[in-house]
């Protein structure tokens, strides 16, 4: 989840897999003033540099908004802390009642924070609205295998799927595509502003927002009516404080002015904090992927063959080890596939095909064979705030590597996240930075959202042969056969298509004062940062 990122008209096709995007992106469309209530941080205080882009689930597909959704919205199924298998949240039970129908029975007596009842009609409204709005930067693509949602009775809904026997659909319900909203609080065909979401309280999660100053301070109070898998909140009042710079975030956590720092301290900050005996650095499985993307329509090159040669040449020049050690001081590891190491079927085709070290001669041959004149001018765009302030150093290093080869001339530019997302969706960037945070732990989460039809990257990549492979691996129930397909599709993507260049992968990291309990419990493969388990 990108850093997830996701666009319009890119419904996820075929069988949704145990892993859909999450990271990386999100729209602000239609936000109001962004301030409701006010005051100083109270209770347990969590600091972050992540930004909220939208509170309406139909517009939000990014990590900053995902954290807010995790506290406030309920899902039919969700991941309990430390769990990787979805379990009933608002649902009492969910099961397949036919090969193409997944049926959920909702718990009796549920209600939203505003007092309105949560029923089957609420669930149908939530999913119908998500698909109808299909916001260019929202998570509708996760529901590509959903044909329709029907009300069976007041407490039962039936999801009819396009493809049968989709054993991964349950894992999509806990993602950003699955929040249940109050049908009386959200307009059916347009986005709600942040102010409208805060005031209407049309959500039923473990916390209620009591004060909202967008990307400055958000205050939460435990919802006494929440009945779900995340459990009753251990801390009644939680505040989230948003920082413009990591410098102030680091100072506040080391001085005890906040209780937890979650995303995104710099490598230098982390080295310093390791020496501080007043804080604890917590690590957990993350699956975060850093990479850059080529817009196949606007990238350099006069023909598809020339454009592919440019991408292959860049892949041959990038020095991931230098980024890992020189820029990130080992916080991230080199990534040679879109699937990070540790996931089922992960291989390293970029290392095999392009090498672990820069290879100028190979890059020059790719370009010469395709008739590409050098140096190739590349307009490379990155974001300085969403993926951490070290992005500036990271992309300066990438520019230096490409320029030093003599084969490229890189024009490096940066844009703040909200504008960045809008311009990216408008084909404004020929080559651009992205990051990914998985929706849930499965290798397909790094494939179909990136390379399937209408994918969230919005870079005009669609290859029927790749789509067929993706559909096959999602439907394959034999583990060995599925791994074989996963390996082949990774190799084919790296060798013949190469629409992205993976750079680095990393863990989840949070820093907390010694008094705080529960941080490690929430740093699990679901990437849901749950306030309910935190206490001091």
Describe, in short, the structure shown.
This protein is an alpha+beta fold and 536 residues long.
How would you sum up this structure, described in words?
- The protein has a domain at 287-508: Dipeptide-binding Protein, domain 3 (Roll).
- The protein is built from 16 helices and 20 strands.
- The protein has helices spanning 63-72, 120-133, 169-172, 194-200, 246-254, 267-273, 304-317, 320-327, 349-354, 360-369, 391-404, 417-425, 448-451, 464-475, 479-497, 519-522, and strands at residues 25-26, 35-36, 44-48, 60-61, 77-78, 87-88, 91-98, 101-106, 146-153, 156-161, 207-213, 217-222, 237-242, 260-262, 279-294, 332-334, 376-382, 408-414, 431-436, 500-513.
- The strands form four sheets. Strands 2, 3, 11, 12, 13, 14, 15, 16, 17, 18, 19 and 20 form a twelve-stranded mixed beta sheet that branches. A four-stranded antiparallel beta sheet has the order 7-8-10-9, with helices on one face.
- β11 and β12 (217-222) form a beta hairpin.
- α7 (304-317) packs antiparallel against α10 (360-369) and α14 packs antiparallel against α15.
- The longest helix is centred in the C-terminal third of the chain and has 19 residues, at 479-497.
- Residues 86-455 form the Solute-binding protein family domain.
- Pfam families: SBP_bac_5.
- Keywords: Signal, Transport.
- InterPro entries: Peptide/Ni-bd (IPR030678), SBP_5 (IPR039424), SBP_5_dom (IPR000914).
């Amino acid at each position: 989840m990108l850093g997830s990122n996701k666009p319009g008209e890119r419904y996820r096709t075929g069988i949704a897999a145990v892993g859909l995007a999450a990271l990386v992106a999100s729209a602000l469309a239609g936000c109001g003033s962004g301030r409701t209530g006010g005051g100083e941080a109270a209770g347990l205080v969590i600091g972050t540099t992540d930004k909220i882009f939208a509170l309406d689930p139909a517009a939000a597909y990014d990590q900053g908004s995902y954290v807010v959704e995790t506290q406030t919205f309920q899902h039919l199924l969700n991941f309990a802390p430390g769990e990787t298998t979805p379990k009933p949240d608002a649902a009492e039970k969910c099961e397949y009642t036919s090969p193409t129908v997944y049926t959920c029975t909702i718990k009796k007596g549920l209600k939203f924070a505003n007092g309105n009842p949560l029923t089957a009609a609420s669930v149908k409204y939530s999913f119908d609205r998500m698909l109808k709005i299909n916001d260019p930067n929202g998570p509708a693509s996760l529901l590509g295998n959903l044909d329709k949602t029907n009300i069976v009775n007041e407490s039962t809904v039936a999801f009819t799927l396009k493809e049968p026997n989709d054993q991964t659909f349950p894992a999509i319900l806990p993602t950003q595509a699955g929040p249940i909203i109050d049908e009386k609080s959200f307009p059916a065909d347009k986005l709600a502003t942040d102010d409208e979401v805060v005031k209407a309280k049309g959500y039923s999660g473990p916390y209620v927002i009591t004060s909202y100053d967008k990307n400055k301070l958000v205050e939460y109070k435990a919802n006494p009516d929440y009945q779900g898998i995340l459990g009753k909140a251990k801390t009644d009042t939680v505040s989230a404080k948003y920082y413009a710079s990591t410098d102030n975030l680091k100072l506040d956590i080391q001085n005890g002015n906040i209780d937890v720092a979650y995303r995104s301290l710099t490598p230098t900050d982390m080295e310093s904090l390791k020496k501080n005996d007043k804080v604890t650095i917590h690590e957990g499985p993350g699956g975060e992927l850093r990479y850059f993307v080529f817009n196949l329509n606007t990238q350099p090159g006069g023909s598809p063959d020339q454009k592919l040669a440019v991408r292959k040449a860049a892949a041959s020049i990038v020095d991931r080890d230098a980024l890992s050690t020189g820029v990130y001081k080992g916080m991230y590891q080199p990534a040679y596939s879109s699937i990070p190491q540790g996931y089922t079927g992960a291989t390293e085709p970029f290392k095999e095909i392009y090498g672990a070290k820069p290879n100028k001669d190979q890059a020059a041959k790719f370009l010469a064979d395709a008739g590409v004149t050098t140096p190739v001018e590349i307009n490379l765009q990155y974001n300085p705030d969403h993926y951490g302030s070290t992005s500036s150093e990271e992309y300066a290093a990438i520019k230096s590597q490409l320029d030093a080869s003599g084969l490229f001339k890189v024009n490096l530019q940066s844009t703040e996240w909200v504008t960045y997302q809008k311009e990216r969706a408008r084909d404004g960037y020929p080559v651009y930075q992205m990051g990914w945070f998985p929706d849930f732990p499965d290798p397909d989460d790094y494939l179909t959202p990136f390379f399937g039809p209408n994918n969230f990257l919005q870079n005009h990549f669609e290859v029927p042969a790749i789509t067929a492979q993706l559909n096959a691996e999602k439907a394959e129930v034999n583990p060995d056969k599925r791994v074989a397909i996963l390996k082949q599709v990774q190799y084919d993507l790296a060798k013949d298509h190469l629409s992205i260049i993976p750079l680095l992968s990393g863990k989840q990291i949070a820093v907390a004062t010694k008094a705080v309990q529960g941080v490690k419990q929430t740093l699990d493969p679901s990437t849901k940062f749950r306030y309910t388990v935190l206490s001091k």
